[in-house]
């Protein structure tokens, strides 16, 4: 089992995220994962830097830390050819430490280019075509592609790494699990859902299984829960809502009825490591082997110290078990 740290790109500036990644490597994390957003979820977060620039800077300032997008939508705001080039370049800059996480995206980030927001079934088909295009361009040489939704004309990615980045496909249902099994190198999820892994394996998937574990560290339970509610209350709206709303103001409205008690049901929070370990164990027991810890607390450095001194030794025992 490998443990990562989720860079909360919606809540911190690009320079601060680079600093956090360096600290995460020093604290013993195996990887960092960053969301690829244009907007934050909430106005309380108030940030959303360009993920690819941040990854390049992190690559230059770390040496062992694996880097991952968690995740990139490759077909509305971007074209998959651009994602193929960006991922290949990031893999080169990081000496092969990059993992490309792909998903079908959210209206929040994709509508900004005024190309519309397709229905879920169409987005699933577009994700499949995008991965086919990326794989094609990573095979070397010039290529064209004519799909139902996406086109590629006489394109070549010139700078390719010797070892291509693994592609991890995000999803919460059967179609995404099937795409991950057929075209990806692993599965990405945000819930401790054993059924999703079963569908992935039934479709032939045998790769890495990534998940994000929601935590919030603070010296008191009250402070940890208050911070998690302030920064992460959008998460209680559920994925079908998260995929469809266009702007932070809409998420502010949708999350206005979310209480701290609602957040408490899904987060490991407070200063007690056992509460955090219980939440982490849920994902490990569900079958996930790459766990990205998300800290929604008020003190990132405090959390990183907490991980190094208390969580990491306990997780080492869990991984051995």
Automatic annotation (TrEMBL):
CDD domains assigned to the protein according to its UniProt record, in alphabetical order: Tetrahydromethanopterin_reductase (cd01097)
Known EC number: 1.-.-.-
Entry's Gene Ontology molecular function annotations: oxidoreductase activity
InterPro entries per UniProt: F420-G6PD/mer, F420_G6P_DH-rel, Luciferase-like_dom, Luciferase-like_sf
Main enzyme class: oxidoreductase
Oxidoreductase recorded as keyword: yes
Protein name: TIGR03557 family F420-dependent LLM class oxidoreductase
Keyword terms of this UniProt record: Oxidoreductase
One Pfam family named in its UniProt record: Bac_luciferase
Keyword Oxidoreductase among record annotations: yes
